[in-house]
TrEMBL record:
Designated name of the protein: MBL fold metallo-hydrolase
Organism: Streptomyces subrutilus
Positions with biased composition (Low complexity): 350-375
Entry keyword set: Hydrolase, Metal-binding, Zinc
Region (Disordered): 12-35, 344-375
Cofactor entry: Zn(2+)
GO molecular function, one term: hydrolase activity
Keyword Hydrolase: yes
InterPro entries referenced in this protein's UniProt entry, alphabetically: MBL_superfamily_lactonases, RibonucZ/Hydroxyglut_hydro
The keyword Zinc-finger belongs to this UniProt entry's keyword annotation: no
Length: 375
């Protein structure tokens, strides 16, 4: 797959945010993984202190998009003893609003997945092909669309400034940012639903997508990016602060250019990514999921990875430790952290042995808007 722009053009694209000096890019380190682990923990502690001083966004609202099956062996890497081959995860979008120091309003959509086009991801396309339609209707639930949720929140798509994903697995952005050519599968040249939004992405992920490794190919839709305009992207290197209480932290491992959303709220600091699919994956000693606590004790592991990709497993583990060091304890149950999986483990009667011990379900911060209830 080839992007329609060269490496030099990517380098020339405008970036966003203020670089975080206390969190240098871990993927640039030549240290062995064990040293990187200690460094990640220490630097996360330092960043916690400075990040809390940046303030907080005005509001955060959670919007459910879809609940779907996902292999247990991926979501609870090596730890689960559940008999169910699949568990359920719920994909959610976070809508974050703040004001710049000059009063300008900002809107960030975190994980605004186009669920319909996401079905063409090779892995999920193959899974759907093998699944009877009656069973699919039983195990897949669509809760709402990105544009539908925004309409209920009273947010115009033209007022959205940033789109951000922890990584671009399964994502097809053509309807969100438009294309420069007719798309045969869509029957049109899509106009950008978000005409002023920039996609915040790590340069490392754009570079990886330009020449995918076989381990990566089942999870990306590279053809969907062939005609997307390069100026739709705002590539960053490492970690940045976007606004008061809103940061992007580079957390490589799940993919080379993985990144996490970090937000400061009335209940403290939250971290969101898909490096893990449950809050208990960061404190597995408190998990009641079959096998998880015992596995963590036996192998002296302090985190359970979401490991559908294994390009850089040690880096993913180190990133989870960084995330758990950043996050505050849950006020509902202090055994668990305010780690909000962008795809959260969800109980389902069809999946015995995969009912989570604890779920967040939503992040809510600031006044409730337009009567929209969090999921």
């Amino acid at each position: 797959m080839h992007f329609p722009w060269g490496t030099g053009e990517v380098e020339d694209l405008p970036t966003v945010g203020t670089a975080v000096d206390t969190l240098p890019d871990p993927s640039r380190s030549d240290d062995p993984p064990g040293v990187r682990l200690r460094t990640a923990r220490a630097r996360a502690r330092a960043f916690r202190e400075e990040f809390a001083l940046t303030g907080a966004p005005d509001t955060i609202t959670t919007c459910d998009l879809v609940t779907l099956p996902y292999p247990t062996r991926f979501g609870l890497f090596r730890a689960s003893r559940a008999i169910a081959p699949f568990l359920s995860i719920t994909n959610r979008m976070l809508v974050i609003r703040w004001r710049e120091s000059d009063g300008r309003p900002r809107v960030l959509l975190f994980e605004p997945s186009d669920v319909e086009l996401g079905r063409s991801t090779p892995y999920f396309h193959d899974l759907r092909r093998k699944t009877p339609r009656g069973l699919e209707r039983l195990v897949v639930t669509e809760h709402g669309t990105v544009l539908g949720h925004l309409a209920r929140l009273g947010i115009r798509p033209a007022d959205v400034d940033y789109l951000m994903f922890d990584h671009l697995h399964t994502q097809d952005l053509r309807r969100w940012v438009g294309t420069r050519a007719h798309q045969d599968d869509l029957g049109a040249r899509p106009r950008a639903a978000f005409p002023h939004a920039k996609v915040i992405v790590q340069r490392d992920e754009l570079a990886a997508m330009a020449d995918l490794h076989p381990l990566q190919r089942p999870w990306y839709q590279p053809a969907a990016y062939r005609d997307v305009l390069p100026e739709a992207f705002a590539p960053i290197d490492g970690s940045v602060v976007l606004g008061p209480g809103v940061a992007v932290v580079k957390t490589p491992g799940h993919v080379f250019g993985n990144q996490s959303l970090v937000v400061n709220t009335s209940t403290g600091i939250w971290v969101s990514s898909e490096n893990a699919i449950a809050a208990e994956a960061l404190t597995p000693e408190h998990s009641r999921l079959p096998g998880v606590a015992g596995w963590a004790r036996q192998w002296q592991q302090e985190a359970v990875l979401n490991a559908n990709t294994v390009e850089t497993t040690a880096d993913q583990y180190n990133s989870l430790v960084l995330e758990k060091t950043l996050a505050d304890r849950s006020q509902r149950d202090p055994r668990f952290l305010q780690f909000f999986p962008s795809s959260e483990l969800t109980p389902a009667r069809t999946n015995p042995g995969t009912t989570p011990t604890f779920t967040h379900g939503h992040i809510t911060h600031g006044p409730t808007t337009h009567g929209v209830k969090p999921a």
